[in-house]
Amino acid sequence: MRLPPLDVLISWPRPNYVDPVTRSTALLVTNGIFVSGMVLAVGLRFYSRIKVKNWYGVDDGFIAVATVFAVALCVVVIIGNEMFCWDRHTWDVPWNKIKGAMIIAFVAKIAFTLAATTTRISLLCLYYRLVQDSGIRWFRWALHLTLAYLVAICVMFVFLVIFGCVPVEAYWNFPPNNSARCLNEGTITVTAGVLNCVSDFLVATLPIPIVMRLRMPLRQRVGVCILLSLGYVVTVAGIVRTYFIYKSLVATYDETWYSYPLWIAATVEIDLAVVSDGFPKGCSATSPDHDMSLDLRVCSSNPHTSQTEAV
C-alpha cells in the first residue's frame, strides 16, 4: 500500500468514521444497469447460437469466460464499495478496513484484465472467420499481431499485479512491512490503462477495411456500424478510466475517493465491450431466419473470385 508523506498526512482533516462525506449510489446503479444489460445480451447471443442456429464457435467460449470475469468484477467492486469504504475519502476509511479494501482492489484488477482480454480475443475470432477464405492476407497478419499484443499485455499486467510486491501479501498488508519491496503501482497501472486504450481502439478499428468490402442489406450495415461505434465508446470509457487511475494513484493520495469514478468507467468499458461483441448474434435471436452476423460476403482481393464465408 502507498503511504502518503508526513506533510500530506498533516494536511488531511480529522478522520470522520461516523457520518463521513460519501459518494452517491452511482457505482451501484451503473453496475446494476450495465451488468443486467450485458447478461441479457450474452443470453440472447447464446440462445441465437445454440437454440436457433444449433452451433457455436470459439468466440462464444471466450465471451462466456469474459462474462464470468465481468460479473466477478461487478461483485468485488460492490463489495469494496459497501463493506470496505471505497465511497469515501481515504482519511475517513477505518484502519481495520484497509487490508480488505486492498485485497478487493487486487482481485478487481485481475478480473478486469482477464475480462477485457477475453472480450477482445472473442472479437478477433469473429474477424478471423470473416476473412478466413477471402484471400486478404495482410488483414490476417494484422489479426495475428493484434492477438499477440493482447496476450502479451494481459500476461504482463497480471504478472505485475500478482508479483508487484515481494512478498505478494505486502500489497495488502497494513501497516506495511518495511522489509517488503513493491514496484510503483501508479506507473504500472497508468501504463496498463494506456495500453488497454490502444487495444480497444485497435479492435474497434481493425474491421473497418473489411466492412467497406461487405455486400449486405442496409439493416445489416446499420447493425455493423452500431457494433463499431460501441467499440469507440468503449475506448472513450477506457480513457476516462485511465485519467482517474492517474488521479488516484499518481496525482493525489486520496486513492479511494478518486478510484470511485475509475470503477464506474471500468464497468462501462467492460460491459459495453461484451455487449458490442454479442450485439449481432443477439439480434438474430429475434429473427431466426436472418442472422445479422450471417451471409457477410467478403470480396476477395482477387478480382476474378468472390467467396462467401458464413460467420
Automatic annotation (TrEMBL):
Annotated membrane topology: Multi-pass membrane protein
Matching InterPro entries: Rhodopsin_dom_fungi (IPR049326), SAT4-like (IPR052337)
TM spans (from-to): 26-48, 60-80, 100-126, 147-172, 192-212, 224-246
GO cellular component: membrane
Keywords associated with the record: Membrane, Transmembrane, Transmembrane helix
Subcellular location: Membrane
Domain Rhodopsin per the UniProt entry, residue ranges: 44-280
One Pfam family cited in the UniProt record for this chain: Fung_rhodopsin
Domain of life where this protein originates: Eukaryota
Major subcellular location class: membrane
Family label: Belongs to the SAT4 family.
Name the UniProt record assigns to this protein: Rhodopsin domain-containing protein
Organism: Polychaeton citri CBS 116435
